[in-house]
Amino acid sequence: MLCVRSHGKDKFFIPGGKFELGESDQQALKREIKEELSIDLDESSIEFATVVKDVAYGLENTQVEMHCYRAEYSGDLTPCAEIAELDWVTLDDLDKCAPAAQQAVTFALTGSNE
User: Fold this and answer.
1) Within its chain, how far is the Cα of 86 from the centroid?
2) N-term to C-term CA, the chain
3) Among 41, 48, 65, 82, whose CB has the most other CB atoms within 10 angstroms?
4) Measuring CA to CA, which residue among 28, 29, 3, 10 is closest to residue 91?
5) Does pTM top 0.70 for this prediction?
6) CA-CA distance, 40 to 71, in Å (whole number)?
């Protein structure tokens, strides 16, 4: 599964980000992915995958809830904005990921968050 590491961070996360006022999940996803990876998501292929909840990495008193999607894309993956590195993460690489990203990768590759 494609994961990203931001500048100044030591763990990988799932690409995406926060909503802007009035955005749907799909609009936020397309915008954030374009900003971070320079690719265009095929809107007709965007498919809900799971919701992941965990402690926000580095913020022990903050809970994160990620709505995860999968989609086809066009263009060349190029790290932009705050992204320092891209990696195709496998189950053997989970220790490189933040806790919520570990759950998302596990779900994407096995169909279960466990």
Assistant:
1) 11
2) 16
3) 41
4) 3
5) yes
6) 10
User: What are the C-alpha distances in Å from 107 to residues 22, 24, 27, 97?
Assistant: 29, 23, 23, 14
Residues 22-38 pLDDT 10s: 999 899 999 999 999 99
Nearest to 71 by CA among 22, 17, 112, 15: 15
Distance CA 82, CA 36 (A): 7
Listed residue (81, 106, 111, 99) closest to 12, CA to CA: 99
Summarize pLDDT for 68-102 with one digit per residue, the tens: 999 999 999 999 989 999 999 999 999 999 999 99
Alpha carbon distance 93, 31 (integer Å): 27
